Amino acid sequence: MSFDRRLALIVLAPGALLGLWLLLGAGLLLAALGPADRTAVTDTLAPLVDSHGMLVVLWWFLAALGAGVVALRLHATYGEAPARLADATRVLAGDAAAPPLTPQGGAGLRALAEAINALAGQRRALQDDMARLVAEASRDVALQRDQLAALMAELEQSVVVLNLEGRILLYNARARALFRTLSQAPGGVAGAELIGLGRSIHAVIDRALIDHAREGIARRIARGDARASARFVTTTPLGHLIQVSLAPVRAAADDRGDLTGFVLLLDDITDEYEARSRQDRRWLDLSEASRASFASMQAALDMLDYPDLEPADRERFQAVVRDEVGVMSHRLTTLAADASHDMKTRWPLQDMLGADLAAAAAQRITAETGQQVDTVAVDADIWLSVDSFALIQALAFLAARLAEALGAPHLALRLAPAGGRAHLDLVFKGAAPGLDLAGWQTCPMQTGDAPSPLTVRDVVERHGGELWLEHARDGSGALFRFLLPVAAGTVAPVPAPGDSRPAYYDFDLFAASAQSRESDERPLGEIAYTVFDTETTGLDPAGGDEILQIGATRIVNGRLLASECFDQLVDPQRSIPEAGIAVHGIRPEMVRGKPSLAQVLPAFHAFAADTVLVGHNVAFDMRFLTLKENASGVRFDQPVLDTLLLAAIIHPGEDSHGLEAMAARLGIAVCGRHTALGDALATAEIFLKLLPLLRQRGILTLGQARAAAQTSYYARLRY
């Protein structure tokens, strides 16, 4: 506990004043007496002081102690309580949803707190009424917005809307999945998404390409083409080939208003380009190899034209022609088979929840065969990338053949992960020694009265998968197993309990880089922030402790973008102490095989680019990052804000500025405590609550916030 000089002064001041009062009284009394009387009093009191002086001192000490206790209680009642009431009132004034004031102090202060709570309740009711009126007035706008969002979500292409500066204003889920693929580093670092509201598209697409496309559109618009657009192909830093269509957005719906931005339609054509390149290489190889065959056949045919050619020589030249024709026929057959395979594997597939596919397949099989199908052991979290119509048709075809061969077998569908793919099983019971899977795979499918030119093998090859028949060891039945591709997905963070780490400051948050000085004049509400947190093996970065997890989210235009997150476990390449596991819940097996910090930090650096870093007790996290600058090759030199320091400025009278205490004070529910992402999300909500309180104190810009934080008590601590 830190020494509070103010409280010590309050406790000691009454005793000191009492002692001074007694000394002054004695001095005045002696000064008023004549010399003879003064001598008489002195002679009389001297023996008493010698014999009973300690009793006088003890009497003064007890009086001073009592006065100090009374002063301390008076200070708590009329000094600290009003200050805390003022802090809580400021919170309530800035946020009507904040917790009500807790009455404390004297009767007057308690009555004042109740009156403030009543006023806050009336204000909250007025705000609710206003919100209801605004909601009713904006219902049509919200409907149009929802329709736009639904349309964007259903589009098969990746759509990104930009402003004139190239900043992202809107994107759909497919664009997010595409950008996640584009940002997936070879080391397997996930979550370093390049897309995000307010981010620049130039992190993926070269500015010169977009500027060139815009110039072409401007020239076409100048010639009267109001619906001009541009298309181009570019490569990403990781080697993906992206086809981009760019179209202008106008302020008016009649294509005559001023340009306000652009819409990008993006397609990853890397696989398609590689398939075409393979096909081109095959044709080139075929043409090169065929030249020698044609030359050999031409020479043999020329020799066969001689009438006096010996029979043995004629037979030899005819054999040359036959052999070369056979070789060419084999080459053409191989090329045709490869081309057919490429056509099938490039068939467009759609993402579908595996449970929905199993339910639809069961319904179709029941309709076709009359057999009830159980959906057992279906993993509800698996998303498949499939041609659902063709795959369900194949399952129904196999179920119908089983019904013909076995009568009425018991059928079931199962779905489970299998490495990077998934197993979809059509399970049936009953003896099946004579089933001809090969024949069923290669004959055209027909279910009911709907014939299909496809075979089951065609459907499997469309998915780049495999199909086989697997018998149960006890002979009770068998299953058809489809090996299918899975769609990309995300993993939700797992909450873990624990306790708070201590305040830690051996990193200078206030060292101004060129970037931070340029940002100091920007208003706090207009800045993009990356709010982050780390979980570590311990509290000593210089002593060998390492980062286990980095979690982050973004704030743009005063809104928390909880969907734009960075969440990555890190292999610390050292042991994890049991004491730390009790705090963050990260065990060695959870990080084994995960990317190293040298791989993760460049991805996090890209995620946090062009933003201000925010954290709670952030010097602790920054110390870990700065120690890894040389190993990772990246430097975090953007401005940094700490919610711990800002809270100490806004609420100087509070005893605790820990994350839990601040969240409770500001009415914020903390979920996933002591996971990096959970703490980052809680810190982001706290920071948003602090912004209006900073404005009330006249702290409006980033520079003012940094300067104010530097004056706080915690900023002066060094550990």
TrEMBL record:
GO terms for molecular function: exonuclease activity. It is an enzyme of class 2 (transferase). Its EC number is 2.7.7.7. Pfam families: RNase_T (PF00929). It comes from the Bacteria. SMART domains: EXOIII (SM00479). This is DNA-directed DNA polymerase. It comes from Xanthobacter oligotrophicus.
